[in-house]
Amino acid sequence: MNYSRPARMSAAALIMGSAILASGCIVGPGDDDGELVTVPCAIAADATTSDDFLTPKTTALVHGFLSEVACSKVSVRPISMNSIGEDCTVPDVAVDLRASDDNAVARKAEIQSRIVPLVTKNIAKVTECVQQEGRGRGTDVVGVFNAIASLVNGSTVHVLVVSDMVQNVGVDLQHRDLAAKDVATAATRELAAALPSMNGWKTRVGGLGTGTTDMSPAHSAALHQVWRDALTQKGAAVESVGV
Hints:
The protein is α/β, with parallel strands linked by helices and 243 residues long. The protein has one domain (24-241): Rossmann fold (3-Layer(aba) Sandwich). It contains 6 helices and 6 strands, in the order αβαββααβαβαβ. It has a 6-stranded mixed beta sheet with strand order 3-2-1-4-5-6, sandwiched between helices. α2 (55-68) packs antiparallel against α3 (104-132) and α5 (181-194) runs parallel beside α6 (217-233).
């Protein structure tokens, strides 16, 4: 089953959207003394031609994620047709806040004014690079999860994925009738086999199933469930957020 994909917008639209604010509070585990404990974070941004429509909303998703998770640093990795071997990379953004740990309001304001713009610029840079190199014609979400696994090397990580999640490299979720139970079961099994161990990961997905203009609600829901089941099988806690 084939689905049409919309054309790509300029990555500059992402940076222009940096004035968007998202609600939320900073959360994170604490030690026995109540000190805020931070965790490494990663953002997987879809740089393929399928996810143009997400670009103006990416900043809002990033705002919400960084406002709600106590990140120590933010790594950005692009989703392309070769995500695991992608050489369009950017340095990590250190979340070195000046506000004290117990001042949640000041920390949130600093994240919104200083950290989010740095992260969205990195997303725009890797997106532009992937497009210029001509590697935006396929969607390898599995590959970006494996790239992040290599990056964190067994550590706990919080991940935001901004993508329609219509995997079509290796494991093909684009051309299959996932609404059929046996097809969905097989797809889930293939995804789980291709994904890394994700024990302790917390994964938030924004845009799942919305990248195909003629995908029915049933197929979108089936895609959602296939990914949720596969990620959960690999040990990840999964949250979906709307865009």
